[in-house]
Amino acid sequence: MVRMLANGVCLAALMLGAHAAKAAEAEQCRAVRMAEPGWNDLAFTTGVANVLLGALGYQPQSSVLGINVIYEGMKNNDLDLFLGYWDPAMVTYYEPYKKDGSVENVRVNLEGAKYTFAVPTYVWDAGVKDFADLHKFADKFGKKMYGIEPGSNQLMMDAIADRSLGLDGWQVVESSEAGMLSEVGYEIKEKQFIVFQGWAPHPMNTMYDFKYLTGGDKFFGPNFGAATVTTQVRKGYLQQCPNVAKFLKNLAFDIDFENVGMGYLINDGMKPEDGALKAITLNKNRLDAWLAGVTTFDGKPALAAVKEKLGL
């Protein structure tokens, strides 16, 4: 009787363990529905999440959608998560969903983002360190500043219109991100003066030697147009899928990592998942923090499984 009871307890424990492994995450959590608006930084970070979730045994899906569509998708339970809430740039987009509680913040996944005027370091060394310095070198700049796509340079135009800066007669040269950076590269090669729209994260920060200008708080906000990026999910998702939730609470990036990773997409023409895999492979040490306390979909230790799956 004692032996039978002991055997029964052991069998029950084994069955319970097997059941626990299979039930590590509810089946409804296997598909992880993500979206990003087509921005290179978010394409890359979403690619990182895509690669890691796939290696954990989930079935991640990523779509490129407009910001409004992403928020409506999370509100209507058509999407699960979004890695790209830029604050303060997207405050007005998020406000109604924050108010009705349909979209929740998980964590800030990037700090140190910035967006303001920039000049080559040799121009900065020559005395152009602040917005207020630009007019002193108007002739050298040709009274031009270089922006990106039409409709995306309003803050440059606002600066020109601000009489306190003495930029009367200046103009914004609009083209595209690639067009602007091509001009920046040419002017730097020729050691000419140029002021342009700079931001981070972006590979331009590793491609060119330049400085961000102070004095633009009125237009871009303090600390060089400082911004943070936050991970967001639909209401209730963290409770429904606690293992993915743990992963999302761990997942964070930094400017240097994204600068390089975005370069794989922009300069090397890699797809987001391929660029993400390369970045992960070259930064294997990040997996310890990203996967701490996380399991695979079926309940196995995450770190060993991901390294095996990705051949690391």
Automatic annotation (TrEMBL):
Pfam families: OpuAC. NCBIfam families: ABC_choline_bnd. GO terms for cellular component: ATP-binding cassette (ABC) transporter complex; periplasmic space. Residues 1-20 form the signal peptide. One of its GO terms (molecular function) is transmembrane transporter activity. GO terms for biological process: choline transport. InterPro entries: ABC_choline_sub-bd, ABC_Gly_betaine_transp_sub-bd. This is Choline ABC transporter substrate-binding protein. Residues 32-277 form the ABC-type glycine betaine transport system substrate-binding domain.
